[in-house]
Model the fold of this input.
Amino acid sequence: MRKLWHIFRLMVQGERKALLRGLALSILVLIMGVSLLGLSGWFIVAASAAGLIGTGAVFDVFRPSAMVRFLAIGRTATRYGERILTHDATLRALAKLRVTLLAALSTRSHDRLIRLRGAQALNRIVADVDALDGVPLRLFLPLIAGGMTQLLALVVLSWLVDWRVAVVIFATFTCGGLAVVLWGIRQARQPSRRAESAAQAFRSRFIDLVTSRGDLTVYGQLPDQVAACQVAETRRQAAATTTDLIERQAGAGLMVISALAAGAALWIGGGLAEAGEITPARAAIGFFAALALMETVAPLRRSVAEMGRMIGAARRVTELTDVPEQPERRVAPSGPVSLRFDAVTFGRGTAAPVLKDFTLSVEPGEWVALKGPSGVGKSTVLLLAAGALVPAEGRVCLDDLDVADFSDGATTLVGQRAALVQDSLADNLRLAAPETSDAELWAALDAVALRAVVEAKGGLEAQLGPRGAGLSGGEARRLVLARAVLRKPSVLLLDEPTEGLDTATADQVLAGLRRMLPDSAVLMAAHRAEEQGAADRIVTLGA
Amino acid sequence: MLKTLLSGQQRAIKTASYLTALSALLWLPQAAFVAGVFSRLLTGEGGVGVATGAVAFLAFAAVRLVLNYLAEGLLFRAGQAIVTQTRQEILTREARTHGVSPLGGPGALAALAGEKLDALLPYITRYAPAQTRVMTVPFAILALAFWQSWAVGVVFLIAAPLIPVFMALVGYAAQEASERQMKEIGSLGDLLVDRLAALADIRLLGAAPRLIGQFEQAADDLRARTMAVLRIAFLSSTVLELFAALGVAMVAVWVGFSLLGELSWGAYGGGITPWGGIFLLLLAPDYFQPLRDLSTAWHDKAAGLAVAGELATWKAHEAEALMGTGEKVAPLSGSADIHLQGLTVQRGSRSIAYPEAHIPAGARVALSGPSGSGKTTLLRLIAGLERPASGNVQVAGQVLGEDIADAWRARLGWMPQAPMFMGRSLRHNIAFGAPVSADLIDEAALKLVLDALPKGDLTVLGETGGGLSGGEARRVMLARALAAKPDVVLADEPTADLDRETADRVTEALLALAERGATLIVATHDARLIAKMDQVIEVAPERSVTGPQGQEADHA
Done:
């Protein structure tokens, strides 16, 4: 519950005004509904009483009947406003929450981020956030609005009808309603949570099935994966059935409460009228108001079934959004800088340190190649220079400042995996340099000898498929190099930049890079003779 | 489409609908008792006593409650059955086909099988019952109204038909809005799956804020679409509520005036009795309630139709059926000889024809040719993952087809060009549950890789092998192929994007396998790798086939 309150407050933050207005309107809707039914009941009974005793001519019919019409229309309009306001505010809060989640994910450490699984993150950002729309709409807003209306009804009914009738109605709804809801939440919490996690498991497994079905087929694992999906679905169905049973029981409980309240109002009010303590018309107010007050508890029924799902989602979302405050970081340097490694040691897991006491400096305009056998730590050096990894000992600096103190992108790393997305070629290029003109894009493409390829594909607006599908490995490599050029980086880090290119193209690309970026400090993990030949200096790792 | 979906559960839904209608109808005697209580309080005669009335009220409430409870249970189970069955259908069909779905990527497919199918539930559980109630309750109340007062009857009669007319108008707009919303849900899923895979690298470029900005836009679009659907729903229900409210208010005013004796028309004989007045007032809201329920359900139907539409698109797409079942069976017996005979495949409008070739068991063969010439497709044809347009692949002396595909694949090792990792431990990704032997780890040179991972071989990696370098991911694919103890290894660009040394290691491991008698078929550009093969099959680009297939085939 505390988690839910936390999420509720998080959602309220940006939408305070709209949600408060929505709450005010929800209370107004409930009050108008109760007034409408109470007034109508009173009106009919009082009118027939007046007609019976022949005082119909002096009975004021116009004010009550005008009031009935006003309440009827007013309630309808108010309800419309309330729904629009609360739903819009909630959906806005949810959209914001999704963005916050993605932003929080993107601050994860590099090592965790590269192992991030799309399907899982999708579950967080889509399904979990979707589950939270009930937090304001079906839990807190109805709870607060219902409670306020009940209190108000207690006061007004004591005055208009009789305190005994008012207290019985109030007590039945609040105590009974709360008891039912709390019981339902307790019962449904586990199964509802299980249903949600099973649904998420189904989604992850199904996505795996679709993405890897070729592999699964060859290795004879297809039926196993289908079975794994089915297990998740069976679990979900079982848990959902239990949840539904409890929800129905809670719903029945709430109906019992409502019927008891109305029945008691009829019984006690009728008895009082029989005894002549109040008029039948006032007894009618009590009964009709009790009928209308049903609306204060009815919406809580769904929150019973959703509670476990909401709590689970709230927990996961809170965990994710609960990232330590990012320290203020320096803006990326714009002029020439030098890159320095000062006695850096770095290791992962139980393996021996990849890097020990590593010292190196790269001056502006200088190209340094790192060579050495695979696994010796060339990529690690580049990731350290990019600030994606933090050294266990020693410092990695741009001039004299720690690289980790700068914001992301202070250095530009072109890794082995070409990070391309489903979008146009131009948008992929502009991802890191949004303000670039088409002419600059073409210049960068020229530098990496990609103009002809792009023209053949139909120009800058040609669409790439998911993960940049549609380009060969070499083309994708050159496209991300062009993207790096557009950033005019002070420090450029290249991980085997010309892998997959023939010698002529590789030379052309390296020369193009050098021409475009005369003042950059360039550090590259280099295997090929062409790459090593392009460097001013070669550093051998593991030697 | 919606109807077909529901056909299996028609009876349960019908029964439940009758139960809810019966429950709604029981409000009539309940109201009669309440009116009776007030009638006796007012006139001192007729009607019923307070205690009797209150007990009867509660008793009917109890019966209605039980009926509703049962109906809801039936509807829920029917809905679950339909959703689960459809989900199964999507699951089994997606497992039996290959190729791209018209709906989009795995994100969109998962959205269809997941939350979109769940969006059918409100339609299943609400629409038919609301329809049944509309066919019964208003007519019963109308009859009672005319019995008590023709004026009230006329009010009801005029107000009611406006509602369905209005509903139909709104329905079209609602369905269109729902369809747009459903599409947006699918594309948001695909956008996220795509972007998240590249997030680590994108952040290194300092482009994370821009990416987040793009996502913010997409999330806001989805919100706007959802809100558009809700706006229509709210507006239409507001209008209906207005009709209902005005109807009820008119009834109340007429009843009030009549009881006062101000109006002498509208009822029969001596005007309306207090009982009749109170009774009519209690019934008035429930005359409109079923119509309002139906209008809500109308929106559920709009959402249901949007989902059904997507399902229909998905069903109508004739995806290529998988050869065999993809299960583990005993390996095919016989020598692992492969004959390619007059193979062609259709790629959109163009057709690719492959040369005739014989690949004897234990041969080392390179498939070479420029990108896009169909090397990967040929590997898929040999693995039985795709069907040729004409010609056939013969393996161990039999034509590769339904009956032997699984047994043939049990003899294969498979290294795709783009490594994909499932959301399970690395160990499971290598051996699918079987233990990973130390020899295997040695052979694929994975020891250091495993040591550097936070949980060793129990680590869960990113989809494309995030957490490993390109070479390491390739080596895992190699280990997986080795773990299958294959007679034939099909490797797609096993050395692409690898540094020379890693490439050499992968090559060595593959050659070592060939030493032990396995056939090696690699699709590759790598001249060094090609040089180590015994045979090269040239896959030429853009063979436009004019004559009988296979005639222009060239042998390596």
Q: What stands out?
A: Chain A has 18 helices and nine strands. Chain A touches chain B through 150 residues (CB under 8 Å). The CA atoms of residues 104 and 323 of chain A lie 7 Å apart. Residues 222-274 of chain A form the longest helix (53 residues).
